[in-house]
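Holo model, dephospho coenzyme A. Inputs:
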Amino acid sequence: MPITSFQGIFSKVRRMGRRRLAVAAAEGDTILQAIAEAHQEGIIEPILIGNRAKIEKVASQEGVDISPFELVEVENPQHSCSEAVKLVREGKADMLMKGKVETSALLKAILDKDYGLRKGKLLSHVVVMEAKAYPKLLIITDGGMNISPDLPTKVELIKNASWVAHRLGIDTPKVALLAAVETVNPDMQETIDAAILAKMAQRGQLGNVVADGPVAFDLAVSFQAAQIKGVKSPIAGEADIFLMPDIATGNISVKALIYLGNVEVGGIVVGARVPIVLLSRVDTAKIKLNSIALGALSCQGEG
Ligand code: COD
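Output:
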């Protein structure tokens, strides 16, 4: 049975046992709260990397007991990124998390050709969202990493998102190839890409998925919208994966739903040797905790 809520994700990862989570620059308040909670939930065994004095100061300010956790002292945030990556390469960590360090610094350490965590695949950001108004989890990509994906990149985005869908128990995910309209318009590149991707999916070139597009977001989540529009689509009203045209549309949509919708969210980067929890400073401790759970879930199987 597919998982349809974060509660379902948590109960699955609790059964899977603890994953070793290396946290680069762990000196962030909501980060330590989320880590402590994830540890309490039995999901992770954290390895805090950073400035010991700063980490201990934040922990005491936040009332978080970090005494049970391993702490690796490094000189600066940049060094904490390379140390975190090194722990994964040495088989001492199962997943990574960004702490109080620039996203680009961690991504550069991960993408490093010689010392990073690439395995010949595209790295992409995947958000999983639970919305009260939708009976399935929404898998949204890519609002965090790939800026302006071309057609081959979109193929990889779909494959990475499908991999996450499989971890959620969805065998044949339904993919909405999103645009502003349901017709191909040569002035809207995403509609052309969507039409090609839909045909590729039909021919089995995207793996075990059902994909359709171009479709607007309303059609993807509402069968009634599809009926009113008179569009027949195998994904109408029941899409699992939402392929955004670019990073801006992905990022804006997710943030709009976080701030104005009634949603639970978690997000990770997939496609590297291990899942990477990569969050913004303003994300709440709950979003960070959800993302850790999603990362732990994604540790299973080859990505
Ligand atoms: N997957 C796999 N390899 C990649 C990827 C990827 N997604 N991106 C780059 N690489 C490889 C390239 O093939 C190359 O070998 C090397 O990494 C460097 O490539 P560049 O020069 O294109 O990479 P950078 O370092 O200039 O940029 C990579 C970033 C991921 C930093 C860049 O794409 C970026 O800034 N993305 C947006 C991140 C962001 O601002 N997010 C905001 C929302 S939170």
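Residues 103-104, 107-108, 111, 118, 122-123, 144-147, 251, 280 surround dephospho coenzyme A (CB under 6 Å). The chain has a mean pLDDT of 95.
Archived with the compound record.
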